[in-house]
Every structure is written in C-alpha cells, then in structure tokens.
Amino acid sequence: MTDFAVLTPSYAPDAGLFEALHRSVLDHTDAVHHVVVPPVDRDLFARYEGDRCRIWTYPELLPKRYLATPKAGIWLNARRPWPPVRGWVLQQAVKLAAASRFDARAVLMMDSDVVLIRHTTAESFAVDGRIGLFRAENAVHAGMPRHVRWHAVARELLGLPPAPDLPLPDYVSPFNVWEPAVVRLLQDRVQEVTGKSWLDLFTGRLHISEFILYGVFADEVLGGTIPRVPSDSLYCHTYWDNTPLDEAGAREFAGRLAPDALAVMISAKSGTSPENRHVALAACEAAVSPERQD
What we know:
The chain is an alpha/beta fold.
C-alpha cells in the first residue's frame, strides 16, 4: 500500500489551469498524480505522463456498456440508455471508480483550478492516525436546494431514512480527501441496498454529488467512525465569486491566506485572467516561504 495518491478529473477547457496544478503536485508531494480525462482530450494531457503522472481515460475506468457519442457530446449506458449520462455526473462517477482502484492510505482529489502551496502528505489530513473527513457543519440550508437534493439522493441510495431538519453538513470541496477502502465499502453498500450496479444507479441520476454520498456514508453508515478534519476549508484558500479578480483584488485575496493553508483555489468560473491568477498565487506562495513550511 502506498501512502498517498492525487486524483484530478479534467478536460480540454481546463488544460491551461492544469499545468500549474500538476507542477504544484510535483513540487509539494511525493505522490503519483492520476488524471482522468475524456478520450478526445488524452493527447492534450499526454505530455505530462511519466513516473509521477498517469493519464486515464473514461473507457479505462468504465464498463464497455458506457458508450461515447462525440457528436452529441454525451455518454450512454447501453443497459440504461435513458436518461443519457450528464458530463458532470460521469466525471463524478469516474472519480469514484478511479479512487476505488488505489491501494493507498488516502487519495487527495484536486480540481484543475487548485494549486498546492505547501508540502502535503496523507498525514496532513490525519486525525489520531486516521484519514479525516471533510465536513462543514450546518452549512447546507434552505437557500441551497441542490445540496438538499443531493442529500436526499445519497440517503436513498444508501438505504437511509429521510434527512433530519435543516441545516445539514456539507461535504463538497474542490480540494478533498477520501480513503480508497471506504470508497469500496460505499460501492458495496449501494449494491447491497439496491441489488443493482452502484455505477448504473449513480450515472442514472440527473442530480447527485459524489462528495455528499461519501460524507453521508461515512457519517451515518459507518457511524461517524471517521473523524472530522478540523478545518471548514480543508486547508484550501478559496475564491468562488463569479467576478474576476483584478490585480488589487488578487493581492487582497492572497493577504487573507490562512496560516494553515495547504492549497489555493481561484474558481475557473470567476474568469480571472491568467496574469491576475499568477499575481494571487505568487503572493500566496511568497507568504509560505521555505523557512516557514513544515
């Protein structure tokens, strides 16, 4: 068993962001970076492949009954062709499929718009020797209908009673950590409860969250035996706004970096220019000088 793996689902529109992410994985971990992309995008990411980077395509992780329809830009499950599999749902499913294959203590999942700024290992997320669970307490409220629906779907697939009254915990993060052994138990649980393939049930949903499914399973099926990581941000300094950061905003964002931050995420959806993204990341990295790193 290895200590640690890094997993990133990506695709062509995020290729420009991916380079900085991958460099940070090489610089700040000893892990292999596993990257999952659609088949049409493999050549775009192939230059990163090597001893520290493995490029996976969807067909390598999915049964042959999952068929790409390039002209329509969707995937079909031949066993259950309707509804077609939404792209972002399939991306979540292959994340679960890939993570379950790792013989590792932990898998760190990083979106393409995340960059590590500190040395990171599995132990970075351990609590009393066990890989912790990211959980933002009481973060899901009535103004978050998609999250509420994701909780309901997770509980249905896991054979649990309806959720208690709001607020509920949130488990969603662009920088997250799982135990591969727990992912395998989760897949088994869904199949035991439903008598059907966990993958077919997952991809057959129009609305679902892999992180909430994992979190609800860990908390309620495993009985809360996985300790909570003591950080509402999981040590990731994030910018979620849809408004682009200008240079002043980039510096202000960096100035709010938490002292325990391991990573920085400036959402790709913010439209922040590469130049101002660089300003923010450079300022964050300067704040974590080598003599201050663990």
